[in-house]
Amino acid sequence: MYQSRNKVNSPITWPRVAATGAAGVLALHFGFTFLHVAPANPVSQQLAPAVGLWMSPFFDQNWELFAPDPVSRDTGLLVRGMTGDESLGGFIDLSTAMLERKLHNPVPDNLHYTVSSASHNLLSARQDLIRDDSVLAAVPEAAESGLFLSEELLEAAPDSLRTAYERTVDAIVQLAINAVRAETGVTPDAVQVRVVTHEFPRWSERADAGVGEVAYSDTPWLTADGEEVIS
Length: 231
Fold this sequence. Notes:
Elements: H1 14-37, H2 42-46, H3 48-55, E1 73-83, E2 86-87, E3 92-93, H4 94-103, H5 111-130, H6 133-138, H7 151-156, H8 159-184, E4 190-199, E5 213-218
Antiparallel strand pairs: 1-2, 1-3, 1-4, 4-5
């Protein structure tokens, strides 16, 4: 009996699809990681929003292993909410609870890093923007601005810095809304964020745990869209 010698294509299998997808994700990750740590170039600047969204907060690079630098400050995050003109209570301390959860759990989740990164990213994005030469040329007093930057400052900033700052504000507002909702059972119309910064003294002066300076930085009341509430 004649048997066809035509080659039969092997069917597509789920393991093959999964392996292909995993290889694609790894290629994307390593490509974005390279752009994140490489010196600034036209490609990394053009893709900065996408790279920043992918890398932060879980894939940020930390080179302190190779260049040890004692921690000089610690930041904490507090939030509160309101509906209409009614406050939903005082500030909720997110950082302390998350730190306790991390220290006393042998298999901790990433929520502590999410909270700590939110405040760090907001401060860093603000600092990068107010130190930019084009911003300082347009608004010489930019360095005196608070935690929440004005539209005048944002308009003077390069698109990449403005996008990075606005993205950090959006992220921290959503984090605040979720925290207030979880604490009170009510979805707030607006939230306020307070970043507590503890500046440590020089390493040789840290024997006394009470030594150091604590500063508070508040945003105005912000809606879910990151817009300031005008009373």
